[in-house]
Amino acid sequence: MNSTLIPIRGEELPKPKILEELVMLVLDASGSMDEKNAETGKTKADEVIWHIVKGPDNLLSRLITSRNREGMFLGVITFDDRVDTIIPRPISMIDQMDLDIPLTQKHGQGTAVGAALLETFQIVQDWLSQAPDKIQRFATILLMSDGQETCDSNPIYAAARIKSYGATGTTRPKIVLATAAYGNKADDATLQAMATSRQDGLPMFKRVSSGAELRDFFIESIQSTHVKF
Asked: pLDDT tens digits for 172-208?
């Protein structure tokens, strides 16, 4: 007996998955993230977590409900002078509590941007190399820092390694790096130099002054790599 399923007229069969996307959040958790926003009264650290995980229209909820959610993965790096990692998992397996991170209680010391990026790069490379057959994998790294490198870990070198990986001349590199400078004390020049260039030649960089602006920039950066929300 032939067991092949025949679709009912008008029924839309699910399309085979051919693409998987990894979003890696790289969040500065140095001591300066304890500074308060004069308008909201919240620390920068609390604002970041609120708009990424807790608040209305937060980044996590947007990823979970996106049209690409079946092929979406999420990982998180938090750092001061040391680096902590949440290994990438399918977005369907991420819970709000996983990302409700007390940033400066967990860290709160210096700022090792380069070390955090190198750790991120290794994780992303491993994930890309484990792609299932017939599945293309791409990654977007979203870095936020509110200060300057203080641990001599060379963020420019780390960013150059990331941007050269899988740069095949196509419209979509294997890894995209978007950078955000949070507040007036962030190292704009370095963060801007680190960012991947868009097709128009401008860097994927923005100075932000609130958690809401950071969330919006992260969403814009993910969408710019052709991920549909």
From this structure: 889 999 999 998 899 999 999 999 998 888 999 999 9
Return the structure tokens found at 63.
């990823």
For 85-103, what is each residue's pLDDT tens digit? Answer: 999 999 999 988 889 998 9
Chain mean pLDDT for the chain: 89
Helix or strand or coil: residue 60? helix
CA distance 190 to 181: 10
Task: Find the farthest-apart pair of alpha carbons in the chain and give their distance in angstroms, rounded.
Answer: 72
Name, in order, each residue with C-beta under 8 angstroms of 221's C-beta and a sequence gap of 6 or more.
140, 142, 176, 178, 204
Q: Residues of 121-139 as b/e, b for ≥16 C-beta within 10 angstroms? A: bebbbebbeeeeeeeebbb
Q: What is the distance between the alpha carbons of residues 37 and 25, in angstroms, rounded to a whole number? A: 22
Residue 107, phi then psi, degrees to nearest 5: -125, -115
The number of CA neighbours under 13 Å toward the Cβ of 122 is 9
Convert the pLDDT of each residue in 50-81 to its tens digit.
999 999 999 999 999 998 899 999 999 999 99
Domains and CATH numbers, the chain: 19-209 (3.40.50.410)
Question: Do residues 80 and 30 touch, judged by C-beta distance below 8 A?
Answer: yes
